[in-house]
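Pipeline run #58 for the internal structure catalog. This entry was flagged by the ingest filter as a single-chain record with no existing model, so it goes straight to prediction. Upstream metadata was stripped on purpose; only the residue string is passed forward. Reviewer on rotation: M.T. Logging verbosity set to normal.
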Amino acid sequence: LRALQQRMASALAHVSNDSAEAVGRAAQLVSDPLIEILQLHRALRCELSSLVDEVCDGPGDEAALAGCAARYARFARIFVSHGAAEDELLFPALRLREARDRCGGRDAAKANAVSDDDDGAHALERRRLDDARAALAAAREAAGAGGAAAAGTLAAARQALGRLKETLCDHMLEEEENQLPRLRKAFSRAELLQLTGAIMGSRGAEETVATLEIVVPNLEPPQARHMLATMSAVAQGTNFRQWLAKLGGAAARDD
């Protein structure tokens, strides 16, 4: 718990001091329950772009690459878990609702099958994530050993991260332009709150803190406060708001 408290304090350092109070303000609650997903996508894009810049423009020594590898591991974990929650909870619900609306409930379950295109896109993402992880590890090892191989492995890591950035940004853009408008059309606001809350409920404490570590530094303070407020709103009926305030407050006292 102490480690989580310290990480929470660091994650929230970019938000103004009244952020704990701001979480509960009705004025900061937004009308679109999907804003939490949009803001997370924005933060993930910024984090990945920053990581690519660090690898491309940084010194490329073993210590620097070790830091990049740790950032990458956190990024990959959050991206994969977020995508899994969408694929297991959000998009199956969308396919079933759309099928029900089309056929009045007859054979609606057939629409829940994942298409070949979805499988292919997911396989490409997994390959890009694995390639980037392996390339960073190889570059770090080569930098520690020294020699002529270091420059080549660093170049390969930069290329792998560039390909990953292109693939994942395309994936998130497709969701925002295609899937999210369909969700808004298919479900009421109350239903979207339930679905988004279910995604949040799938995160454990460690994963929630890791998400905030990516979200808060990569968003402007007003955006970060909006997201924290929305996370509290969609988690209504859970202990998220109390957990956030307690964890952040305890961390601040420890400091």
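catalog note: The first helix runs from residue 2 to 11.
catalog note: Residues 59 and 65 are 9 Å apart (CA to CA).
status: ready for reviewer M.T.
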